[in-house]
Amino acid sequence: MIDNDKHVSSVRRELGNRPVEDGEAIVGTISQLYPTDVADLWDAVTNPERIVRWFAPVAGEFKEGGSYQITGNASGTISNCDKPRGYDLTWEFGGQTSWVEVRLIPEGDGTRFQLEHIAQVPGEFWEQFGPGATGVGWDLALLGLARHLADPAAVPDPDVIATWHETAEGQAFLRASADGWGAAAAGHGVEPELAKAQAERTYKFYTGQE
């Protein structure tokens, strides 16, 4: 079993900036240390038969230059693949394109999964929700990955997933995640009261209250 509180509190969240072709982008970095080796973690995050057990169904050509489509979510192109160290891809969703860079880093007896989401965030969207709008989604993915690695044969129940945000367990996790991204925003220079308000709106969004 995964201790949700321990998991969410040990996730690292950071914000930064990076120049891109059309200006400057916000970089949201999230990482978690998993008790497995690089080869196993690489397989878990690149094998479609395993990805569906912790994230979502995905189809495509899983190679450099190939395309992918996540059911009900993003699509894009795999721009770089450096097995088993990591990969880069475009993240195309809702008419917007951003970029995702994944790195697998040996650390002690385990492997750290690190993901950078690089986006030119629209002003109004950023003002309303801050980094938690996408960050909480990645937190949920990292929790799913932890549960999968703890029990690789388990098949998630869609009905349980669909209502998890209504449970005390789910709401506690989403509260901690949203507040964690609020703290990351404040650490990046966002005025603390604004960062707190953004985190609150993000929490309400993910729990169906807004």
Automatic annotation (TrEMBL):
It comes from the Bacteria. InterPro entries: ASHA1/2-like_C, START-like_dom_sf. Residues 37-149 form the Activator of Hsp90 ATPase homologue 1/2-like C-terminal domain. Gene3D superfamilies: 3.30.530.20. Belongs to the AHA1 family. This is Activator of HSP90 ATPase.
